[in-house]
Structures are given as structure tokens and as C-alpha cells.
Specification:
The complex is a heterotrimer of chains A (about 220), B (about 70) and C (about 110). With about 220 residues, chain A is an alpha+beta fold. Chain A contains five helices and eleven strands; from the N terminus they run ααββββββαββββαβα. A seven-stranded antiparallel beta sheet of chain A has the order 4-5-6-10-9-8-7, sandwiched between helices. The longest helix of chain A has 16 residues. Chain A is globular and about 60 Å long. In chain B, a hairpin with a 5-residue loop joins strand 1 and strand 2. Chain B has a two-stranded antiparallel sheet with strand order 1-2. The termini of chain B are far apart. In chain B, about 35% of the residues lie in helices and about 15% in strands. In chain B, about 20% of the residues are buried. Chain C has a single domain, classed as Glutaredoxin (3-Layer(aba) Sandwich), CATH 3.40.30. In chain C, a hairpin with a 5-residue loop joins strand 3 and strand 4. In chain C, about 45% of the residues are buried. Classes of the chains: A alpha+beta (about 220), B alpha+beta (about 70), C alpha+beta (about 110). The interface between B and C is large, with 40 and 65 residues. Strand 3 of chain B pairs antiparallel with strand 3 of chain C, so a sheet runs across the interface.
Amino acid sequence: MKEKPKVFGTPGIRVCVAVMIAVFGFGCAGMQPEKPKTLTSTDRGTVLFLDRYELKRPPQNWALMKNLEGGDFELGFLLFEKGEFPSQTTFMFDEEPYGGSQDLATRAKYYCTRFLFNSGIEVRVTKEEKATIDGKDAIALSMEGENPNRNEKAKSKVYLVKKGNRIISFVCTMWRPMNGTYAQEPFDYFETFAQSFKFLKKDFYEGFEEELTKAGL
Amino acid sequence: MAKKKFFFMALIALPVFLAFGMGNGWAQLKVGDEAPSFSLPSSQGKLVDYYRDYYGKHHLVMTFFPAAFTPT
Amino acid sequence: MDAHNRDLYLYKRLNAQVLGVSMDDPITNKFFAESLAMEFPIISNVVGWMAKSYGAYSEKPPFGPDGSINTFARRTVVIDKKGIVRYIKNGSPDNKEILMFLLKMEKDFRGQK
């Protein structure tokens, strides 16, 4: 008769198993390689996004959205709200808003024709006024639109800001079902975000223009 | 005998197929090649001619896109 | 194509100009250009031979199985002022990459003077 090997009987094995449980049970996070933190808190009530921007973020129930490889935006926040789909708000910093003109008014006019164009919503501008963001000239656009076929509507606030020879943007869009009610609070957090936004270093284009000057071009 | 004949014909046909299949008999454009010249009507109401408008004067960035009003 | 428009002031400093090439006729291209407020020309290559020469058909044949002309693929090409192809990239243009390439190319040109 073969004797079953007493694997868990030996003290050495018991210790090993206990250690393994402890490590995996408690230390899983610690075991993973450290990912570089995208948002670091300061003691000024702001956060730093990598080494690029300083801003006031919305509360922790807003998820961070980042897109570092290029795309429609670089940094933003998303909030899933109570209510029927779609009930959510996103806001973001978009370095290259629709359009090509360097003139704010012209860019704004074109921007409104493209904004939300692929969502089936035709926006109407409810308010357009001059503004200042980070000491720079800006235009503030308030827009709204509906798509009854998909039972959704959207309300947006956009700042188009003149930064050197480029125009950048801060965009907030709130989605609701057709019978939903728009809320004010997410827009307040967006205002804080946009108004607090600081650039910590030169962007690509500023750096590039300097290179051109250095090269005598 | 028939099999051998078929094999032999395939051996000749294959490179011919490949030559046409790859680039349709045209050499693929490579960096370092001379740019093919062109003279085509433009959206600005005039003819754009490479040698008249760009050669010797400006570098040219040309983007091919399939159709107007598609996402660019 | 928006991005090219945004970079026109930089292309000017780099002694570069921009052209769009599409398969549409000049009138369609005119309306398209106006809708995007594009300040550079779009040339019409309805029959697609230009795209063939420039390899915009590198990933599919110029003619479909029924003999109709296939739409060509996106491709950006940079030709220096001596008429030599210096840069080829498939897909949507990477505008920052193009700018940096043009800078290097123009610096090389000036270095040769």
C-alpha cells in the first residue's frame, strides 16, 4: 500500500504556503511594477498632470481620462450620473479644437459647425461671449442640442483660448435622455478646472517656433 | 507526364503573377525617387502644375485622401 | 486636413506648401475646402493615376473586380524643392512629425549653401 505523501504535513511547506497567501492576499498591489503616477497632488489644493499642467480636479468620483498618444483630447474627467442612459458628463482639455483659423471669432464660427457632428446632434449656440482663461483671450460658447431618434440630448460649454499662434480648448459636455434634467454642479467643476489650468512648460508648438527662429527660419 | 507539364508551366507563370500582383507592374514609390510630375485642376479654380508652382521654389507636403467630406 | 490649415504659418517659415489630393471633381473639392475654411488647394485626381504614381494604392489595387476605380488610401508625401520624394507615410498625417521632418530638411538645405 502506497503511503500518500503528506505534502501539507511538513512544517516547511506550511510556512511556504502561509507566506504565499500573505504575499498574494495582501501584497498583490505591492508586487506589481510601479506605474508612473499621472496625477500628483500638491499642497495648494491642485494636482499636477505629469510635468505638463497644474489644475484643480473635480472630486474623486470623477474618473480620470487620459490619452497620451494623441487623439481628440489629452486630459479629461468623466462622471457617470444617476439616471437613465445616457446620464454622464465629461470635460477635457483639447489642444487642437476643430478648425484651422488662428482668429478666435473665425475659429469659433467653424467650431460650432463641427462640434458633436458625429453624434447625430445639431447644436445651437445659446450664448457666446468673450472670456479670459489663464490671462489669455478666449471665447466662451454655450451650446445645446437634441437627438430624439436616440432619446438623447446634450448641453455643452466650450472655451476656445488663444495661446500664442494656436487656439486650444476646454470642453464640457453633459448628456441626458430626452426627458432628463440638466444639472449645474458638473459645470461648476468644469469652470474650476478651466479657470485653474496652468501650463508648466512650453508646448510642442512654442518649442518648435523657437527652433525655427534659432535656425533663422 | 501531365503533372510534370503542369508543374513546369506553374513555375513559369508564378513569377509573372508575382510581378503583376506586387504593385501591378508599377514600381512602388520610394524615398529618394524623383517625384512624378502632375498638372491637375484645383479647388481654387486654377490648374496646379508641379514644375511651374513648386519645383525649385517650395517643398511640397501632399496628402492623398479618398473623398471630400469624409473624416480627415 | 484641419491640421495642415493650422500649421500653414509654420509651413510658410519652412518654405513648404501644402496640397490635398482627392478623387472628387474640382467643384466638390471647392465646396469641401470652403466648408473646412481650407486655405490651400485640393487637386482633383478623378481617375486615380496620380495616386497610383504616388503609391496611394499601395495597400489595394487601383481597380475593383468589376473594373471600377477604387478609392485610394490616405497617404502623405513630402517632396523637396528639388523634386525628390523625401518622406512617405500611409494613413492620416502625423502633423508634428511632418513639421519636424521639414525643419530638418530645410536646415540641411541651408547647410549646403
